[in-house]
Amino acid sequence: MSPATAPLSADFTALIGDNQPLLQRVCRMYCADADDRQDLYQEIVLQLWRAWPQYRPGAAKVSTWLYRVALNVAVSDLRRRTRHPAPGALDPEAPYAAPPPEGPDADDLAQLYRAIEQLSSVEKAFVLLYLEDRSYEEMADILGLTQNNVRVKMHRVQDKLRQLLTQPA
Amino acid sequence: MELDDLRRQWQTQPVGPATSPESTEQTLRAMLAQTPDTPLSHLKRNARRNLSVAVLILVINLRAVLGQGSAHGVMNEPLMRGLLLTGFLLLFASLIWQLWLFRQMERTGDNLRQQLSRLTGQVKQVLQLRQVYGVGWYGLMLLAALYLKRHALLSYLQADGQQLNHALIVGAGLLAAVGMGAWLYRAGQKQRQRRYGQYLDQLEATLRELE
């Protein structure tokens, strides 16, 4: 059945409505450009819609499942390469459209964002899950690694970020 | 500033206005109504189109494949019908397998490591499949040509006093055909590398990094 004509279950609509900020944060981590973010967001929603019938609540927490699908799309780069913005779809100016950092820490924050942008897609996945306050157990479940492995890699990513931050611009 | 400092701000980023379930549904419908324009969707569309063309060709040649009422005597020969049928079977099997692989590649509910290793394996399978299919078809065409020209070839090889020369010429011709096959194989490999190689390299590098 085509995605355009398929029935949208109330559960799925509620799931996307409730978790829109989470999905937007994933997009923000992977795309600096607003159009790219919009493309990625649409692709993630499409993949979630396709995967939704197979989701079993007992097998994984809904947040774990959402992160899995979103990161799989973002990291494995199955998304569109050319842009065709959806007429009437989510407003690109809507939430999390990368507002410029403000406040006393604005410069430091901007520098940190620039450092994160230099990380690989896998390293960004670690940073994202860390920023999202996910436990090592859930991170391991999302990424398919052991908790120890996650801990070690997380430390490496933090070290790399520190190095990037100390490098002259 | 470190990640811990950013973490405090990360989840409290500005949130847009709350949306009603109706507007969420409308937005979702608008998004899902779009034709996906991913590399994978292109591959799927191509494989579906090729399958339709193959079905059309089979329907057009159905009588010849079944050996009924062929205008040319050639197609009445069981070996030729067998080769044609094998070619079609090979084509259908390859296209259906490709479509199945592309569908599997769209599954995204696994963890990242499983997803990357599955995708890597599936892209490799698609490459191998096209390779095997190309070699298979070329081999079938070569066999068919040899079969059709078998009488002429045999009488040419048995010509009085010229056996050695003619055998050398036929040998050279066969060698050239095999060389041509090898060249086509290499060219196909290069084309596949151009089309999928970069994506495969990227997947493998990401998987290595994760492991």
UniProtKB/TrEMBL annotation, chain A:
UniProt keywords (A-Z) are: Sigma factor, Transcription, Transcription regulation
Q: Could you tell me one molecular function GO term of this UniProt entry?
A: sigma factor activity
Q: What residues does the RNA polymerase sigma factor 70 region 4 type domain cover?
A: 110-156
Q: Which residue numbers delimit the RNA polymerase sigma-70 region domain?
A: 15-83
Q: Is Transcription regulation tagged as a keyword?
A: yes
Entries under Pfam families matching the protein:
Sigma70_r2, Sigma70_r4_2
Q: Which GO terms describe its biological process?
A: DNA-templated transcription initiation
InterPro entries with a match to the protein in the record: RNA_pol_sigma-70-like, RNA_pol_sigma-70_dom, RNA_pol_sigma70_r2, RNA_pol_sigma70_r4_t2, RNA_pol_sigma_r2, RNA_pol_sigma_r3/r4-like, WH-like_DNA-bd_sf
Q: Where is this region: Disordered?
A: 83-104
Organism's domain of life? Bacteria
PANTHER family the record matches: RNA POLYMERASE ECF-TYPE SIGMA FACTO (PTHR43133), RNA POLYMERASE ECF-TYPE SIGMA FACTOR (PTHR43133:SF45)
The family this protein is said to belong to: Belongs to the sigma-70 factor family. ECF subfamily.
**Protein name in the entry:** Sigma-70 family RNA polymerase sigma factor
User: What organism does this protein naturally occur in?
Assistant: Hymenobacter jeollabukensis
UniProtKB/TrEMBL annotation, chain B:
Comp. bias (Polar residues): 9-24
Per UniProt, the keywords (alphabetical) are: Membrane, Transmembrane, Transmembrane helix
Q: Which domain of life is it from?
A: Bacteria
Ranges for region Disordered: 1-24
Give the transmembrane region(s): 51-71, 83-102, 132-148, 168-185
Q: What is this protein called?
A: Uncharacterized protein
Q: Which species is listed as the source? A: Hymenobacter jeollabukensis
